[in-house]
Backbone:
């Protein structure tokens, strides 16, 4: 195929550049080089806020790998919980004692020092203490 | 840099996997005037059907990937002449586009709504080594089909980086392969083909839908169903391309539940097709209905569950159909339909060209079939929201109708490319090099 005559080669090269530019290729390429996956995930899902990827990732990395942790998202804009898949492992039970609460509005009511009552969307889930916290994101365990 | 290398690695892996046809298939398609792009897509259909079978077993995804890549490599080794770059510049452009789109997906790896609450769990099921039957143990809608998520899991599992977005390169690859297949069917020269590929991607690529939705896969499979049927029917007798069409139809059913509706629309259009002989029409009808029933029985056998529409969907009673309360839905649904046309400019291009063809009296029989598909498609897309008892019908229409219509939008590329092709031929014969 004699497509690569000089004139056509230049046209092709220009076209490829236009295609790359219109798809933000150069910016995307730079972004991939500059920011690693974790940083980009935090950028799109938030550290604490939105789906709170950063906080959930930190907790699930440190916790028992053989159990899933229930994630409660208090953001009223989400009718379903679209953070639950973060850290989810198939066919593994849920830790009955631990909960990650993100985007907390008024779900936690302090009873005393580190004793909180968790009322999530009108259902009382019992008493919990805070193991870890970042802004409105909480890692809770049952208060014994 | 490792992520860019990983993307290149996965694209090379996918190219190898889909470079696996039996040698006879290559020869057959070559003898009927095909090239690497078309052969590649036929392999995609064959391999996806294999993957569908594998999804019912607990076969290790690494093993499947390596095995298929090894077959691809052997095929490349023994048939290297058919892969020579000299003949396949357009295939290189396809890989170039695949790289650009994959990098785009990697840059913004967000999963959109349905993907984050449904599809990702199916993907994780396969990623974690479980089979189809285990889907009953995971969150999400059980009766959604799973083929796309199996492909997603396969690529993710074999990625050098353990992140779900890597698996979504699978969707980009197949989406682009279908676009390149259909463009390749027309008599454009190399540079024009590249420009057209750019324009088609420009009007059909929606980053949101590559965020874990199954629509890009459906979009691709519908394009190829039409492309392969046209090819198959050009021989005027039953041939192996009809078999590929049936396999393609099977994939459509296992990507999304709407698949069977699209197949029925396709069948209606086929029945109006004059050139297709009765035996072929009968073969397609019998095969499609059998495939629909098989899928129905498989879901019934494993999960005792099948779904039309969304979870809890029920049809309104007959006497309600023309009641004022229900009729009031029509303007809102028409409004939604109009929004979709603007959201996906391929519809605008199609409608503008259709008006041009009507005014210029240049409509041929194939264009009429395209119009028929368009009207049936719009009618059914509206119907599903019109006939439901669900009081949230408008919400469902606003989040679902666009995706339904996106899935089928690739079919209109025929009319668009046909008009462009004739335009080029009439203005200086921009034939193939």
Residues:
């Amino acid at each position: 195929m004699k497509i690569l005559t000089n004139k056509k080669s230049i046209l092709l090269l220009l076209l490829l550049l236009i295609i790359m530019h219109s798809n933000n290729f150069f910016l995307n390429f730079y972004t991939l080089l500059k920011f690693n996956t974790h940083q980009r995930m935090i950028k799109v899902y938030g550290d604490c806020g939105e789906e709170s990827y950063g906080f959930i990732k930190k907790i699930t990395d440190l916790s028992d790998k053989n159990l899933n942790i229930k994630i409660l998202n208090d953001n009223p804009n989400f009718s379903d919980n679209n953070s639950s898949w973060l850290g989810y492992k198939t066919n593994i039970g849920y830790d009955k004692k631990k909960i990650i609460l993100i985007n907390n509005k008024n779900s936690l009511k302090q009873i005393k020092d580190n004793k909180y009552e968790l009322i999530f969307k009108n259902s009382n889930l019992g008493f919990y203490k805070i193991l870890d916290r970042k802004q409105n994101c909480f890692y809770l365990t049952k208060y014994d | 840099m490792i992520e860019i290398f990983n993307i290149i690695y996965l694209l090379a892996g996918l190219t190898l996997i889909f470079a696996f046809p039996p040698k006879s298939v290559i020869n057959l398609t070559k003898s009927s005037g095909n090239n690497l792009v078309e052969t590649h897509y036929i392999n995609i259909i064959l391999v996806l059907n294999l993957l569908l079978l594998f999804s019912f077993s607990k076969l290790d995804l690494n093993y499947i990937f390596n095995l298929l890549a090894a077959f691809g490599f052997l095929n490349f080794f023994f048939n290297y002449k058919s892969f020579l770059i000299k003949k396949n510049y357009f295939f290189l452009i396809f890989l170039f586009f695949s790289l650009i789109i994959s990098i785009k997906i990697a840059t913004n790896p967000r999963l959109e709504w349905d993907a984050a609450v449904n599809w990702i769990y199916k993907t994780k099921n396969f990623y974690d080594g479980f089979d189809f039957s285990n889907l009953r143990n995971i969150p999400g809608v059980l009766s959604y089909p799973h083929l796309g998520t199996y492909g997603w899991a396969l690529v993710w599992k074999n990625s050098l980086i353990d992140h779900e977005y890597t698996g979504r390169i699978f969707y980009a690859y197949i989406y682009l392969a279908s676009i390149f297949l259909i463009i390749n069917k027309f008599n454009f020269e190399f540079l024009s083909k590249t420009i057209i590929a750019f324009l088609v991607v420009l009007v059909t690529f929606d980053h949101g839908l590559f965020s874990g939705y199954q629509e890009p896969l459906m979009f691709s499979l519908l394009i190829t169903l039409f492309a392969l049927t046209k090819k198959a029917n050009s021989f005027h007798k039953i041939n192996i391309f009809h078999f590929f069409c049936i396999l393609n139809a099977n994939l459509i059913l296992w990507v999304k539940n709407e698949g069977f509706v699209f197949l029925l629309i396709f069948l209606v259009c086929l029945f109006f097709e004059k050139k297709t002989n009765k035996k072929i029409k009968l073969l397609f009808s019998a095969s499609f209905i059998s495939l629909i029933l098989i899928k129905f029985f498989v879901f019934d056998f494993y999960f005792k569950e099948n779904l039309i529409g969304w979870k809890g969907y029920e049809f309104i009673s007959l006497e309600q159909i023309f009641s004022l309360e229900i009729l009031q839905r029509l303007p809102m649904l028409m409004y939604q339909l109009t929004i979709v046309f603007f959201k996906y400019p391929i519809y605008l291009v199609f409608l503008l060209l259709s008006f041009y063809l009507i005014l210029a009296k240049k409509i041929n029989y194939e264009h009429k079939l395209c119009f028929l598909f368009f009207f049936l498609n719009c009618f059914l897309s509206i119907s599903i929201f019109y006939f439901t008892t669900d009081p949230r019908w408008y919400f469902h229409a606003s989040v679902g109708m666009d995706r339904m219509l996106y899935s089928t939008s690739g079919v209109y590329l025929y009319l668009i490319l046909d008009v462009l092709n004739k335009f080029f031929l009439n203005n200086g014969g921009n034939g193939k090099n």
